[in-house]
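Question:
Write out your own:
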Amino acid sequence: MAQEKLTSKSVMKYRFGVLRRLKESDKTPIKILLLAAIIGAAVGLIGSLFMLGTTWISNYRTQSVGDLVIDKWLVIPTMFAVSAILAMIGYYLVKRFSPESGGSGIPEIEGALQDLRPVRWWRVIPVKFFGGLGTLGSGMVLGREGPTVQLGANISQMFYDIFRLKDNESRHTLLAAGAAAGLSTAFNAPLAGILFIIEEMRPQFKYSLISIKAVFIGAVTATIVFRLINGEAALLNIGQFSSAPMNTLWLYLVLGLLFGIVGICFNRFLLFLQDKFLAFYQNKISRFVLMGGLIGGAFGAIGVYTPEIVGGGYSVIHQMVAGQFTITLIFLFFALRFLTSTISFSSGAPGGIFSPLLALGTLFGGVFGYAVLELFPHYQIEVGTFAIAGMGALFAATVRAPLTGIVLVLEMTNNYQLILPMIITCIGATMMAQFLGGRPLYSVILEKTLERSAKEESAAKATIPPSA
């Protein structure tokens, strides 16, 4: 009996000890992980609404003009006017209310993770959302993926402020979780979202057990919400391809090396145009908005008869892989989309470059595939495998994130059997780009942004008269 009482007291003492330690323990990690889950769900919802909104506006624009305008000679000017108005709305919102919402927004998040750029979520979230609806809905060659990443990080900052957290480490963790949730939502690719933070934002991301768990949770919950709304199908349903034969693997290395050169040319031409646009704008809102209207209107009008060279690019990927284009058309569309995508992004529109990059990579990979088919007819070659490898290769060469590019394309297309040629192509593209002295696109854009901010601050201080 005495032994039983002693055992009972020991059990009670142990239980009270556990409860006391739980009460006295630091609840911050649990709070951060719960917030990461909430943020992921919110980003999944907002990102889904953004995708549905841009698709609806773009479809409504083309259908309504086609239905209302009977005279074929009036279709082009009408489409120009409608697209120009949509684009100018986006450009005006950016220039008037939130300049940091221009472009993809990913360099802004990288700067925020280094405490070099502010995160003003109260103005970025509405401007990026509605401004992006205008520019992407107008038919400009932009993607919704970069904006969704910026929206995700800003939603994280919003929850950080609402819950009145104070430590900077928690802020960095939630920003990374929100960005990962944004990319996961945009591509329906949770693993790519996680890898993007670890690989692309590795200089800024502060790795710890809590931070990496938060990134995982944010990406997973965002993807769950996205799939509840949009379904579980892969984003690019282009069919299944057979594995690449071993004797063709060297061709994927050649393709990767060529993509390294293409990536360098793309980045340098885009940055060149960006400087030219900024010199023309001279920080005047009228020039910025009118140029946006001209670009948006022109691309909207072009899309009436040549939709293959405008828009995000998912439709042209499907057509290319389905074999609907000749090699001449594919090369022509690649050259024209190279021009339209760099113009759209460098002009400062609220929109990303991911989708246009995937489309360009698909087209160039298709050109290479058809050329190889002619040169080596005895090889068992499927042109589509080179197109899929090209998607990730151009992404790897420009953004300099080969692992993210590999996993992203495999998750989007559900062609996991092509992982070996994907790895060879993306690594080849990255090595060639690095050998030629190229630098990651977003890092260069961030540096240029910081330089302009420093010059503007210096100019502002110079105009302030010294106090008496």
Observations:
- Confidence is low (pLDDT under 50) at residues 21-26.
